[in-house]
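lol ok so funny story. i was supposed to be doing the assay writeup but got distracted and ended up predicting the structure for this chain instead. priorities right. anyway since i did it might as well share w the group, maybe its usefull for someone
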Amino acid sequence: MIEQFSPRQLQVMTWWCDRSPERERDGIICDGAVRSGKTLCMGLSFVCWAMRRFDGRQFAFCGKTIRSVRRNLTVPLLPMLESLHFQCREKLSENLIEVAFGGHRNRFYLFGGMDEGSAALIQGATFAGVLLDEAALMPRSFVEQACARCSVEGAKLWFNCNPEGPEHWFFQEWIQKARQRNVLYLHFTMEDNPSLSLRTLQRYQKQYSGNFYRRFVLGEWVAAEGLVYDFFDERCIAPPPEWLEEFVISCDYGTRNPASFGLWGRKGDVWYRVKEFYYSSRQEGRQKTDAEYEADLARLAGGRSIRLVVVDPSAASFITLLRQRGWQVRRAKNDVLEGIRITAGLLRDGKLVISPDCTDAIREFRQYCWDDRFGSRDQVRKEFDHAMDDIRYFAATVAAPARALPIAAGTVERGAWR
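and the output, tada:
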């Protein structure tokens, strides 16, 4: 249960109330820094507004996926509602939450807006209100379809998101036109979340750099530009210690494009890139077979006991061969932006260290840059990225800090009418 709300969170909680000067607004947008406390207070306010204003109506919680809606919103929200004496019954198999309070009962459906085809999932429904969590991550067609479904008299729209690029359609069409659309716009910083300690705030400030720092810490809508790892310098480079506790190999597989393998050794909670293999068929004038690459991987291992080989998930034939030869193989996590964020955080925290012998990785760190041709979409240039990919695979799949387990989908109903 939240013990106190910040002034900004209280604005979210009360903007629709009878005495609020903002009560005639048609919606609210909250954007800003990560961990700034906007999501949970918005979810609580959304349900309180719905239960106060309506009875027997339908509402929607929308996110990038239904799983993310549950993880980010409904899982922490439902216990809070129940502590306030709301009666909540969740039907996981129907993606539905039924809520009763003060003699009113309403139904809240969960929707995922992953791609352009998702708009069809919500088409035809009628809602008295929608909450779009992570609105900037959803396709425009889905967001506009969800808004169009709110045809009940008195319906309102609720949006929250972290910033993307300044050319993003949501920034241009909603945030910059908030007054024109009669929508309340509130910008959050980490200081707006009273549950974050000073130590936690400082940790987040150290975790990001460059473009990601401006977006996730300062909450700015800025374009990705320049070097991806603009902080990379001699502090990220050091010889590995003599004795390492375990070894892992990461692989970015290439036939026409270069192949890059990295041998990683762990000492305590620090991973060292000890050695690497890098082969460009274009420069060498000959493509290698899967069997030849497996032999190169074995030479890189050098007789060490390799706990795991993390491989580019698209390299199906290479993965099959490695498993046939007895290697323990895992398909790498391949979310590029998330992998870059994880890699940057580990490098800045000293949890990933690059040996001076890994000259191709060091060269690519100093050349790997954002592609400014994509406007609102963050893209990296598809050059000087092969060691960067194998390092990203390793960081996201092996070295990433432990996270909460994903919410399991099931059919058990939560709660009962009291």
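Residues 403-418 have pLDDT under 50 and may be disordered. The CA atoms of residues 116 and 139 lie 6 Å apart.
back to the writeup now i swear
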